[in-house]
Amino acid sequence: MSTNAERPEVAVKVRVLAELGLHARPAARLAQAAQLFASDINLESGGRSVDAKSILDLLSLAATKGTELTLRCQGPDAARAAETLAGFFRANQL
After folding, report:
1. How far is C-alpha 9 from the geometric centre of its chain's CA atoms?
2. What pLDDT digit, counting tens, does each position of 22-47 carry?
3. Is 9 among the residues known to form the active site?
4. Of 9, 18, 21, 23, which is the active-site residue?
5. What pTM did the predictor assign?
6. How many Cα atoms occupy the beta-carbon half-sphere of 85 within 13 Å?
7. Which of 2, 43, 78, 88 is 20 to 30 A away from residue 33, measured at CA?
8. Does the pLDDT at position 93 exceed 70?
C-alpha cells in the first residue's frame, strides 16, 4: 500500500523567460530531462495540467514569454526533479 510519505509532492512556481516562449526545442529539452525522474511531473497553467514528460502536452500549453506555471512533482525523487527542472526556467532556457 502506498502512502503520501512514499510519494512526496513538491510544487514550484516558474515563469517562462525565453523570448520565444515554450516552443518545440525547449519543450523537448524539458521533456527529456523530466523523463529521467521516477516522479510524476506536471506543468499547470490557466487551470490546465499537462504531463511534463510529453513534448506534445507541453506545447499544448502555448506558454509565451512571461507565462507563470506551476511545476508539480510527486514521487520518490520529487524534490530533486523540481529543483532540476525549475533550474531550466531560472537559467532562461525556457
Report:
1. 13
2. 999 999 999 999 999 999 999 999 99
3. no
4. 23
5. 0.89
6. 34
7. 2
8. no
